[in-house]
Model the fold of this input.
Amino acid sequence: MRNTLGKQFSRAVKTYEKWALPQKLSARLLVEFTKPRGLILDLGCGTGFVSQHVKGKVVGLDISKDMLLLYKERFGNAVLGDAHSLPFSSRSFDYVLSNFSLHWTDWRKTIPEALRVARKGVGLALPVEGSLSFSSFPFPKAEEIISLFEPERYEIRDIDIPFLGWELVKFFHYTGTSNYEGKKENLTRTKILKLLSGRKEKFRVLYLLLRP
Done:
């Protein structure tokens, strides 16, 4: 299952950066929200949207081999791994940041893992329920995450997807997000027509600052 997810994003590596504009904006907002310093783990790093905004030493971890290769060319320190079982000792990093990645995981397991390897803080940007009006993706509920982990700070922002019609369909295809593990149904004709109707879609993103 996790290997399938890695391959899914590897197939999109050549088109991801051009199309993943909401993810790119969210990465900058996450760094501004968290204000990390010291040694930082970019968890689910992709091609490095978060790492390009942080100061200090960064280490990237991702499940996609091809995205990790590109990350390594830019930032040097790259680890192939799964967020459910991080290959690091406890308290290995000052901060752990994760942008638009842990909703692909069992967040009840991966958030505690992020907290385990952090010394000072964990900053998360998670798309939550209320994202993508047409999608059957099982986005987590913001209230459930907040209740379970009791963040020091949190806020919810709506981030528009700046594509309409066929461009919106391409957005999901070229960012590797049109298919996902546990998907129950493909896009039906009705849902495709809804995407083509010109309605603007958005991600509802929960930003959290957690303390270990």
Observations:
- DSSP finds eight helices and seven strands in the chain.
- The longest strand covers residues 118-128.
- The first helix runs from residue 2 to 10.
